[in-house]
Write a structure and sequence with these properties.
Four copies of one chain form a homotetramer.
Chain A (H helix, E strand, L loop, with lengths): L3 E6 L4 H11 L4 E7 L8 H4 L11 E2 L7 E6 L10 H7 E6 L9 H8 L6 H4 L2 E3 L2 H10 L2 E3 L3 H15 L3 E12 L14 H4 L3 E5 L5 H10 L7 E8 L5 E9 L5 H12 L5 E3 L21 E7 L5 E8 L3 H16 L16
Parallel strand pairs in A: 1-2, 1-4, 2-3, 4-5, 5-7, 6-7, 8-10, 12-13
Antiparallel strand pairs in A: 8-11, 9-10, 11-14, 13-14
């Protein structure tokens, strides 16, 4: 079993740290370098105390990055585009976890992100990394762009219904409940514990940036798909729940909805359909997904049989970022798709 | 200043306890009796430890209820209807906090609550207790029914927009985020701390019972109003936030929306319009409303100017139940409307 | 009823904001000015969103401070000492909420705070503001220093036992559990929600600064009293619980301990002895004290009858700071001692 | 690699479920049967939703228990003693997770647990399962008793200091901060979310039952060791932090304390000494240990050099119960000691 030489740019952030946690225990990976300008020279455990006694790796400066087999870049939006061409010289395969290469239209990107894109020529080189929708393309790709955490759970929850024209493609409202870790590790007044604890904060009632990539991904199966996203921050560190309000094209039986989901997902290792008649976890629940790469999807039809509520849950740092990226890496490298991603989650927690 | 002799039936529950907290400090009220079969003979502080050193009142059995000026009934749904006629002999004025007299149609009630209504003849005697919509009727009423907590915040948030035909009356989706106290004080597996802590639990994705009273209240101003409610339990003890997704009838400016809200609410003592450009509390936030009778309402239009997200927040036990009932009592008795309800809330908390 | 003209220096912080909340509803107080350099010119509701619709007051710069009847200063440790002499010209009576005038020895202050004290001549002018221990002095004082939040709950919990020589004065270990609001409103990595949420962080295992004022206050009744403080930050915004481990001087009955507490505290409006045989709130609990000025004190003897665990709880921003300062102001001005401090707290919460 | 046939009695509880999670991924274990009278016939995922898509195992009734290689019993205190003799006929090796066989004295057991012990003849057959203290005995044992969660973290934190006579053996105060999962999965008024959320509840100020096993285990190295335990429930689901207040025998340097810890623990795979000069995780922190088998230990000396505060942290369901039991199983079966226990924990979480 050969070993893949992997480096991570921007490894002191939450996504980078989660990737490091997963890759350090991946049987076919050797973590070669992890960069952080803030922490250069220090042990990775300064930023990620959970890795104490697991690794003695230290952060290096980004300018000391050496060539490797596989490179992950985990930087704030708008930063990786400037250097991507140079990094392509250092690594054969790259997954970028930021937003810079998620959209395939420069115009669209600049509209949603409000700045000039400095590397539009690289945009078409990146495959959008949702294995459940684009597995074959990912397997053949050198470059993959990791989706936004809110985007991937919405896309996975909606995909069967949009593709199979079960719901009206222009009546989709995504009400997202978000944990605090998705905003990254920089302190701010908004993240100050006495203010952030216990909030139900409507931080983005309309106009969430992930709208663009959700519409792009679903639109490639059903052109003209429109979604409206409202995001509320709640008391949670890890996790996202999306409650998706949709209108049925035609009245439908629960059984048919189950079939629609099974048709797309019955072989998917990380998708769980959750719709139970009893118990405390009858629908998707991010609480028990912490640390796992699972995406749970459930649904409930209303009594008038004209509306369908679809529910999706993930851990934003795993299936929402680092775990999903590892799954893509496994596909790109011909490794078993679930390798390194077997953690089942905790209960209670 | 004369004193009103008030009793509370079912005072060991959370709503009853909150009412007791408020009434004990109301300058024109004397709390005469509080009943609880479970706690009869014990100090109210056994159930409500916050009232230690505030009162030496004890619970009595319901059969020992004496006549009084004003009676509050705070029992589980389906219980007060059986005895309401008898209680009407004991008190001139009554506010029922349960669901039994919220709807004005027996058929509708039985459809949503799934059991026979035993006192349909009493239904028409009760005014639905939302002061901001029905102030004059409440002032003239002997009997008032307190709205459901999820209902009142939805009604108050939607009222100006439905009444003024700003939004489409049949495209209203209410996504409610709920604290644990709204489910009452009976332990259950669902409320067991290791299971309930940190959840984002889709406990009622469709078919929430409060749908009926929301449609009835708004429908009295705009017949045919339809709402769809999805309720998610989150990590919070007190509080509700509703994120209401609506479709605009016509494109509209923010200024006009402000005007629509001010038109209905500029004189309302407990309504706050919250829509700030900066700061951490730009939209309604239940966290800082704990203990207060305020309802905060905010909104954001989407970029395409065809959707409007309306946001409402309350403390489910105050404006959602006991505080609102006190406000109704003040109206029914000719007291200043805000009396006993001046607590401004805490920050941080 | 004449009205006291009160100003607050440093009113944008958590303690200043809490003081403002209380004073705005105090029937004998008119809040004249509130200063904040950061927020000067802005509405106080920018910093304290709970005060929306309660006040239209704006922050002013400290240099625009005018004369008033009563001045509160609520600044970071080490700041008020530089200007205290000047402020004494502007107001007849002052309560300082910081640490600068808590100790009566310059040497001791400089040892614990690690900097030079610039106004040692003012130290003796300040009375240490614990009404339960020093009521008469406070009534006669022009200048009062508000105790540290951790200090006051420890002092109140220990006072009867130290004064009456029930416990060994040099075997006192205070294990304090602290909420996040006590660290103030400045964001930092330590207060960043994903890091701070759910912690049980030993942030000061030994050497807590409040040691000095606890020993000073108790030492004035029992010279040589020694305490050792360990502080742990837990998931809580408001509140402190101290678990105090002590050694009994002699075996003692519970009844005698009750008597010892009653002897000192039976007339105290804000002290509650909490030691119940049944129920969920058998011992002091900060959760239900949020927003109140109460200090709950309880105890349990071990089976070997040689150790006594004393438990104390407060809201760090009320009895721990702003509420206690209001109580002192009431004493200094001849107002009823409990005025403005009647809020009984919430349950559940 | 042969496979061990393992069954779990009482697998629907939190400890049993955690054991199941670990064993299902243990490469040398086949889980044969899991019993639960309450859930018999149902999928294990009804009780443990995190195991969805991981296993299709069902619960069986305890009377259908078959013979196996290794048996874990995870029942409420006082239940396993009645049937232990019978189970010894079904399995060669047994680990009991309850309290019934933790003490080696019937008299002591009956004193602390308040009931008659029905199988005193079995008591001496069980080795107390702390690998770090009793590794060789465990390796040779057929029967092992898993320690209490609060006991094991206290024992591990104190062991080097007691054994090497660094602290006074009769001046040890353990102040334990506890999560809610340690009380098991039965709902009660005390665990009802609106009551339990956000508490700082002194639920056992003195007389904690684990005192007996702590004194027994440490006393086997240093006779006469006495500990006093106070337990406080805080807002946390998983985790324990112990703050241990001790008196030094003689003044000592930090360096010597480090040496004392290293002497006992330098080869221990699951002990981490945590005492950092900077960063947010300077001392042991249960938050980041969730799901891991690590025990973190730290310390701080006071400025007078006569007191030592020792701090220990674990996940109560892993190193506190199921993980530690797996570690014992590994020792008893000659497997690598860390097998199945490699999960490093999450950050942030």
């Amino acid at each position: 079993m050969s070993t893949l030489k992997v480096s991570i740019i921007g490894a002191s952030g939450y996504s980078g740290g989660e990737l490091l946690r997963i890759l350090l225990q991946h049987p076919q990976v050797h973590v070669h370098q992890v960069t952080s300008n803030r922490y250069a020279g220090l042990s990775v455990t300064q930023a990620h105390p959970n890795l104490r006694s697991i690794t003695s790796l230290k952060f290096t400066k980004i300018e000391h990055l050496e060539s490797c087999d596989f490179l992950f870049t985990s930087l704030p939006n708008g930063e990786s585009m400037h250097q991507m061409s140079a990094w392509m010289q250092l690594a054969e395969k790259i997954i970028d976890l930021g937003a810079d290469f998620r959209l395939n239209s420069q115009e669209l990107w600049e509209k949603w992100y409000g700045t000039k894109h400095s590397a539009p020529h690289n945009m078409a080189q990146f495959t959008y990394g949702v294995p459940e929708l684009f597995r074959e393309q990912i397997q053949k790709s050198q470059y993959v762009s990791g989706p936004g955490c809110e985007a991937i759970v919405s896309i996975l929850s909606l995909f069967p219904f949009v593709k199979q024209a079960i719901i009206q493609k222009d009546q989709i409202i995504i009400d997202a409940k978000m944990g605090s870790s998705q905003a990254g590790n920089r302190p701010s007044p908004a993240s100050h514990h006495p203010e952030r604890a216990g909030v139900t904060r409507s931080y983005k009632p309309t106009g969430h940036r992930h709208t663009a990539e959700i519409e792009q991904a679903l639109g490639s199966f059903c052109p003209g798909t429109r979604v409206d996203v409202s995001a509320t921050a709640i008391e949670m560190v890890r996790g996202i729940l999306v409650t998706i309000h949709t209108s049925l094209e035609n009245p439908i039986e629960d059984r048919e909805i189950w079939n629609a989901l099974r048709k797309e997902y019955s072989q998917e290792p990380f998708i769980r359909i959750v719709k139970e008649k009893r118990g405390l976890y009858r629908f998707p629940e991010p609480k028990i997904l912490q640390g796992t790469n699972h995406c749970e999807i459930g649904f409930e039809k209303d009594g008038r049989n004209d509306r369908l509520v679809i529910i999706g849950a993930i851990d934003n740092l795993v299936k929402g970022t680092a775990g999903n990226a590892t799954q893509c890496m496994n596909l790109m490298c011909g490794f078993p798709e679930t390798q390194g991603l077997e953690f089942p989650g905790l209960h209670p927690v």
